[in-house]
């Protein structure tokens, strides 16, 4: 069976996971290309600091802007395995419905539901892993930028 066959067999939950994957990877690529080098961000923060404002507050404001979109990536990483688990439950439910309707005489009666269960579990994990890695990478990167900015600029605070 090819990949499209697996996707089709996984049903609507796999389509939801694919949709979430597209959204998540769009944000991930956006972050990879829009988060410039640390020194460029710190230079931008230096330019935006107003003499009358708190340096720490201004740095935190700029860092918060860098975190835009990361909540979506984190939520996709968290929700994907749960959707896979939901697919598992749906697949097992389908299996029991088939057993109830047709009996246990033929083992292939419940194999379709088990296949759905496994496919959705696999899809949920496949979607979750890269999103969790990307989220951790970006948070680490932004934390480093914040620490460097505070180290360079904290002496200017009012």
From TrEMBL:
This is Biopolymer transporter ExbB. Residues 54-146 form the MotA/TolQ/ExbB proton channel domain. Keywords: Cell membrane, Membrane, Protein transport, Transmembrane, Transmembrane helix, Transport. It comes from the Bacteria. Its main location: membrane. It is found in: Cell inner membrane; Membrane. It comes from Aliarcobacter vitoriensis. It is a multi-pass membrane protein. One of its GO terms (biological process) is protein import. The chain crosses the membrane at residues 12-33, 72-96, 108-129. GO terms for cellular component: plasma membrane. Belongs to the exbB/tolQ family.
């Amino acid at each position: 069976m090819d990949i499209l066959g697996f996707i089709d067999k996984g049903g609507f939950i796999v389509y939801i996971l694919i949709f979430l994957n597209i959204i998540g990877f769009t944000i991930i690529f956006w972050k990879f290309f829009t988060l410039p080098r640390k020194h460029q961000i710190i230079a931008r923060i230096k330019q935006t600091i107003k003499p009358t404002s708190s340096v720490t507050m201004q740095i935190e404001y700029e860092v918060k802007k860098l975190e835009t979109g990361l909540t979506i990536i984190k939520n996709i990483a968290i929700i994907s395995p749960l959707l896979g688990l939901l697919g598992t439950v749906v697949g097992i439910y389908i299996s029991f419905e088939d057993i109830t309707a047709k009996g246990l005489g033929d083992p292939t009666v419940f194999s379709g539901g088990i296949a759905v269960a496994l496919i959705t579990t696999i899809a949920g994990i496949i979607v979750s892993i890269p999103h969790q890695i990307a989220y951790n990478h970006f948070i680490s990167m932004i934390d480093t930028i914040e620490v460097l900015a505070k180290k360079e600029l904290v002496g200017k605070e009012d």
